[in-house]
Amino acid sequence: MREVRRGLHGAAWLPLAFFLLVAAIVPFAVGPDARLLARIGSGALWIAALTAALLPVERLVEPDRADGVLDQLALAGTTEEAVGAAKMIGHWLTFGPLLLVAAVPGSFLVGLDGPALARTLISLAIGTPALAALAVAVAGLTAGLPRAGQLAGLLIVPLAVPLVIFGAAATGDGESSALKLEAAISLLLLAGAPFVTGAAIRASRT
């Protein structure tokens, strides 16, 4: 609840606005060809979703590390892995549901039809928790480092490539197995991110 309050107290609308802005710019960039838009639209939405998850990365872990909140939680008996899991859930709740709502007008802006819209929502519902997990893990790894925001971007984009590939493929073709592969990658990231975050928090104390 603390993570959700912090996320909503800040610029919670920024990822949503950025997502819609990218969706609105794509038709102007590629032209009015409806078939071309439908072919690249799912990929554009996934890139926008990745960037939206990355925008608040600097405030996910570093403020609590700098203020000593993480040390107080450790003294109270809260494990670093539990802190990482709570931050993942809180981060997703502050951008994931809003992103799913924004995906409806965003899909129409890039020319996706009704079935493609349904696949887009399913794909984003499966993939955005993994994006949140990646953002928190990378935030933990870069906490306390100079230019952490730029470094986080360099780290998270390569790690998110498989998720983006299969997520966009699942949006474009409902008959493929891309959705199952996306779900498998998402589960792997969700399972591993709390341990990576916990190890990073412990390492930042030394």
Automatic annotation (TrEMBL):
PANTHER family: CYTOCHROME C BIOGENESIS B-RELATED, HEME EXPORTER PROTEIN B. Signal peptide: none annotated. InterPro entries: Cyt_c_biogenesis_CcmB, Cyt_c_CcmB_bac. It holds the Pfam family CcmB. It comes from Sphingomonas brevis. It is found in: Cell inner membrane. It comes from the Bacteria. Keywords: Cell inner membrane, Cell membrane, Cytochrome c-type biogenesis, Membrane, Transmembrane, Transmembrane helix, Transport. Required for the export of heme to the periplasm for the biogenesis of c-type cytochromes. It is a multi-pass membrane protein. The chain crosses the membrane at residues 12-30, 36-55, 92-110, 116-139, 151-171, 183-201. This is Heme exporter protein B. Belongs to the CcmB/CycW/HelB family.
